[in-house]
Amino acid sequence: MEKQRENTSPNGRDIDAGIEDRLIRRREVLRRTGLSSTALDRLERSGRFPIKVTIGPRAVAWSGSEVNAWIDARKADRKIHDSHLYQLNGDFSSGIRP
């Protein structure tokens, strides 16, 4: 009989991945991203935010892993922007060129 790995469910799915990819409701999306409700709606309509999933007649949610990937992409953009400012200014103290 094959021994079950520690981080898998009886059906063989990765438990940690399931927790991370759970559906999260609007309040949690707003909390994680720091966006306002209006900003979230605008980003989603423009295709710059993950698409919500209908989970009931009056309920929607977002994939937690997709929201986290969106946040990580914003962080990566910031790092590229900050390194560009560093090259221009020689430090991170100001975004204004001397």
Polypeptide structure, described:
With 98 residues, the chain is mainly α. The chain has one domain (15-89): Multidrug-efflux Transporter Regulator, Chain: A, Domain 2, CATH 1.10.1660. It is 50% helix and 11% strand. The chain contains four helices and three strands. It has helices at 15-20, 26-33, 37-45, 64-89; strands spanning 23-24, 53-56, 59-63. The protein has a three-stranded antiparallel sheet with strand order 1-3-2. Strand 2 and strand 3 form a beta hairpin. The relative contact order is 0.11. InterPro entries: AlpA. This is Transcriptional regulator. It comes from Stenotrophomonas daejeonensis. It holds the Pfam family Phage_AlpA.
List keywords for this structure.
98 residues, mainly alpha, Multidrug-efflux Transporter Regulator, Chain: A, Domain 2, 3 strands, elongated
